[in-house]
Amino acid sequence: MLIGRVEHDPKKQIQAQLPESTINRLDQYRELYQLTFGEKVSTSDLVDLMLRNVMDRDREFKRFLKDQERKEKQEAKQEAKQQGQGGEALAGEPRDGGGERNHTTGEEDRKHGQPKQGMGR
User: Fold this and answer.
1) Total structural domains in the chain?
2) In angstroms, rounded to a whole number, what is the distance separating the alpha carbons of residues 86 and 43?
3) Is 84 exposed, middle or buried (0-12, 13-18, 19+ CB in 10 A)?
4) Would you say residue 4 lies in a domain?
5) DSSP string of the chain?
6) Is residue 111 a contact partner of residue 99, using CB atoms and an 8 Å limit?
7) Contact 114, 101 (CB under 8 A)
8) How many Cβ atoms are within 10 Å of 33's Cβ, its own excluded?
9) Domain presence at residue 3
């Protein structure tokens, strides 16, 4: 069989209409499932297995999912970067932490290893 055993995940209900011929084939597949695994399977569980099997094997769908994941990661990274820059700077301090002089104290930014200097004294 192309499908494995049923996983019992939480379910959401959908409404679908299928041709009678497809429903007849599903019933036959349910019989095969029961013979193979020794247990009954509901039509909804069987349809779930079949759909997941198709999606798992579809290379184009896998690429689509990877692209979506990559986009989401990039967006999250951009959002985190924007939130990190959005904090309030102290009075006279640059937001980007560049080596500008603090106009209140005349001190140089310590990140650049410059010594403290007084205000002309």
Assistant:
1) 1
2) 53
3) exposed
4) no
5) --S-PPP------------HHHHHHHHHHHHHHHHHHSS---HHHHHHHHHHHHHHH-HHHHHHHHHHHHHHHHHHHHHHHHHHH-SPPPTT--TT--SPPPTTT-PPPGGGTPPP--S--
6) yes
7) no
8) 20
9) no
Tokens of 49: 């297995």
Overall pTM > 0.70: no
Residue listed under structure tokens 């349809």: 47
Tokens of 102: 């603090």
What gap in Å lies between CA 88 and CA 82, rounded to an integer? 13
In angstroms, rounded to a whole number, what is the distance separating the alpha carbons of residues 92 and 101?
8
Give the amino acid at 10.
P
- Domain assignment of residue 42, given as a range: 20-81
Contact between 89 and 80 (Cβ < 8 Å): no
41-86 confidence digits (pLDDT tens): 999 989 999 999 999 999 999 999 999 999 999 999 999 988 887 6
